[in-house]
Design a protein that fits this description.
2-enoyl-CoA Hydratase, Chain A, domain 1; 16 strands; alpha/beta; five-stranded mixed β-barrel; 50% helix
């Protein structure tokens, strides 16, 4: 009996141990698939940091792959080159998925997609328009020889990427030289991309068991027993990325100077000046990264100077008009490069209108003060009505606002008649009959 009982106990323990080993084995072989998302972000140093740190984490955690859900209008060439280098040297598959519907992988996004292990697109998306954009300038400030040098360097770089990932070089050349873009259907037809997928599940299903070359070694991709791990930008990265939006940088710079103008014209408040300085410093961080046109920057600063001059020495709108002209021109010229880096007209016009209304309000107050009749002193008595306290024949006495004044008149005025003050000579008022 004891042996039978012992055997039953051991059998149950064996079953539990086997179950535990199966679960442990499953967990041991379970790998995550990291997913990061560029939500219509400009490719910049923050995007570069975001991608680099997640490639590193995915490698350290032995992830099955890193999926980059990409939607970008383009970005800075230097940041793009660094991202491409990180993707090409990654020890895990990096999958670029142009998503969601209506998204694009323009300019910088094209190079990032080309460098990936697998390039996929969602329906109704497009890729291309990869003409180089310089972080420190634009074609307007670069000589023809330097333009050719940069273009040739970009083409050589593109050729290396296409050759490394076995993607068609002809399309990439068209995208660089002619800013060509294609839809997902055309891209699939020209073998620019590997597949079209509706969503992440569809993407993983279509690339299951696909052969991928990583560091000259062929691996078979598998997402079985893998969990998707979505990683967003950190709070710091979201803040810095927002600062690098041309519209945000422009607003910070402009509002910063307006805060300083308010502090100069209304000393003692403190807060507008402090907030203005902080806004300008944050804007200068963005300007150190974005392709700034210094002529546009100088025009905005000149506009601010004109507004300050108008505030202290009112010229009845002359400096305000000059300031507005400089402000609008400077706003339009502030950033170089394609539309991606331009300040939106929808931002410029409301701000210009607001400044105009503010200037008109200030000018109106100045005119109101200048045209207002004096409230104190002798000048305030001119035109006032008083009462003759005696007969006035050349000289007499009058009462004005309860005060007794010596008065004289060129006409005879009887006691008790109302008089009007027409002039003041010393302490003697010259009066006449009211209404005459």
């Amino acid at each position: 009996m004891k042996n039978k009982k012992y055997n039953r106990v051991m059998k149950k323990l064996s079953v539990l141990l086997a179950f535990f080993l199966v679960i442990t084995a499953g967990l041991a072989y379970s790998q995550n698939i990291k997913v990061i998302t560029l939500k219509d972000y400009i490719i910049n140093p923050v995007s570069e940091e975001y991608i680099k740190e997640n490639i590193t984490k995915a490698e350290e955690e032995n992830s099955s792959a890193l999926i980059i859900r990409l939607n970008t209008p383009g970005g800075l060439l230097k940041s793009t080159q660094n991202i491409v280098k990180d993707i090409l040297n990654a020890r895990i598959p990096v999958i670029v998925y142009i998503w969601p519907k209506g998204a694009r992988a323009a300019s910088a996004g094209t190079f990032i997609g080309y460098a990936s292990s697998i390039l996929a697109m969602a329906p109704s998306t497009h890729i291309g328009a990869a003409h180089p954009v310089l972080g420190g300038g634009s074609w307007g400030k670069v000589s023809k020889e330097m333009q050719d040098k940069i273009m040739n360097d970009t083409l050589a770089w593109a050729e290396n990427i296409a050759e490394e990932k076995h993607r068609p070089l002809d399309f990439l050349k068209e995208a660089i030289e002619e800013s060509t873009s294609v839809t997902e259907k055309e891209a699939l037809k020209r073998k620019v991309i590997d597949l079209v997928a509706q969503d992440l599940d569809d993407l993983l299903r279509k690339i299951e068991n696909k052969k991928i070359i990583i560091a000259d070694k062929e691996i078979i991709f598998s997402s079985k027993n893998s969990q998707l791990e979505l990683t967003e930008l950190s709070g710091r990265q979201k803040f810095l990325n927002a600062l690098l939006d041309p519209n945000i940088a422009y607003l910070l710079f402009t509002l910063g100077f307006l805060g300083l103008i308010f502090e100069v014209t209304h000393p003692g408040f403190g807060f507008p000046g402090i907030a203005g300085v902080i806004c300008i410093i944050l804007a200068l961080y963005a300007f150190s990264v974005l392709p700034v046109n210094y002529a546009g920057l100088a025009l905005i600063i000149l506009a601010v100077i004109f507004f300050i001059v108008e505030a202290f020495t009112p010229t009845f709108g002359l400096f305000t008009l000059a300031g507005l002209a400089c402000f609008i021109l400077g706003s339009v010229m502030l950033f170089r490069g394609p539309e991606t880096f331009r300040v939106s007209v929808k931002v410029i016009l409301p701000l210009a209108v607001s400044i105009s209304l503010w200037s008109v309000f200030i000018l109106g107050k100045v005119l109101q003060v200048r045209l207002k009749k004096p409230q104190t002193g002798k000048e305030a008595l001119l035109g006032e009505t008083g009462l003759a306290l005696s007969d006035i024949h050349k000289e007499g006495k009058v009462s004005i606002h309860g005060e007794l004044w010596d008065a004289k008149s060129k006409e005879e005025i009887s006691q008790g008649e109302e008089v009007e003050i027409i002039d003041i000579k010393g302490l003697v008022l010259e009066v006449k009959k009211k209404g005459v």
